[in-house]
Design goal:
Blueprint: H1 11-15, H2 18-22, E1 35-37, H3 39-58, H4 62-77, H5 83-96, E2 101-103, H6 105-126, H7 130-150, H8 154-165
Antiparallel strand pairs: 1-2
Length: about 180
Amino acid sequence: MGGLGSGTPALYDLLMLPEMKRAKRRADPYRDTQVIDERAPRVNQTVVGLISLLAVGTGWWWLLALLALQLALGLTLGRRWCLACVAYFELIQPRLGEGRLEDARPPRFANLVGLAVLTGATLAYAGGFTTVGAALGLLVGALALLAATTGFCAGCTAYKLAYRLTGRTFVSCPLPPAP
């Protein structure tokens, strides 16, 4: 990626070490939607958790609506519309390399649950039920930060548990082979 006809290297080339440029992804983050780098949901959870806490702490409940909108866009239009995902895949992953790949269905379900609770929080705030809105916002913030810091994702666990309760065994989708 050189400069645009100027003959000078682009900023991307200056910031990337040669060994980073050689790292190949086993899965395209925008096309291979059956799998996801395990660190991408952690980045998203960090963003959702911190902004949720900021919204509740400051009373800026409209931030909860923006988070819900962001999750809805990512879930319906794909990862290119998830700002935290794009930041991870374009800024962080190229520098750290691809993490372990995991089945994308449990984190996707967790995002659906987060969307539902954030929507409920937004509607509660908008309807004047600030205590309910704050409680729901804090719930999302706490669970998102728990997942981001420990790796325990309540929504992901609920997804896998639902498989067991319906008599099915959760089987992760096939992952691409390691290089």
